[in-house]
Amino acid sequence: MAGRKKVKLAYIINDACRKASYNKRKKGFVKKMKEISILCDVPVCGILYSQYESQPIVWPNPLVVQRLITQFRNMPEEERNKKMVNHEMFLKQRIEKEQEKLNKLKKENREKQIRMLMNQCLAGRPLTELNLDALNDMDCMIKGSLTEIATQIKSRKEKELAEMNQPQVAPPQVLMFDQSNIYTKQTVPWFLGDVPNQQFGFADDQIPPL
């Protein structure tokens, strides 16, 4: 599914197209105010003047609009102007953003141009054919690349050194026993230790008389 085409922010010359765009965006504008008011519990009001309406469109109603405007005017000037954006400030912000984009594109194009000149010089083009601005830009680009390479080398060396200094953890050892070499030493009782190897008890002829 194709995405929505970005609308060019410019005055619509055709009257019918301009009116159709107004009606469409008017509904969207009122819908957004209602959503912000309900979802975020933010006091919102709007007044919309148009050449297509005999009376200004007021949302949500004149009483709420009057109350919010009075409340806004009673605020301290510093607080009131903190996040306020009028038409002039809005256009200024848009111009600054577009200028940033333009400067970024100019920088990217210049870098591509300098890279092409560097490749041409490596292929044999004399440096004497380049002007001073091109030589200065080439010098800055080369120095920047060398700095980046040096940073990468330093980072990798530090990483390798840290890995080398880490203590080596020995793997767990498993002790194996040979059951054939395990024996139990039986201790002779103390009362049999010094007794000679002889028969215990009395013979029939040794039974004492009663």
TrEMBL record:
It is found in: Nucleus. Residues 88-115 form a coiled coil. The keyword Transport does not apply. The keyword Protease does not apply. Keywords: Coiled coil, DNA-binding, Nucleus, Transcription, Transcription regulation. One of its GO terms (cellular component) is nucleus. Residues 2-51 form the MADS-box domain. Pfam families: SRF-TF. SUPFAM superfamilies: SRF-like (SSF55455). One of its GO terms (biological process) is positive regulation of transcription by RNA polymerase II. Gene3D superfamilies: Transcription factor, MADS-box (3.40.1810.10). It comes from the Eukaryota. GO terms for molecular function: cis-regulatory region sequence-specific DNA binding; DNA-binding transcription factor activity, RNA polymerase II-specific; protein dimerization activity. This is Agamous-like MADS-box protein AGL80.
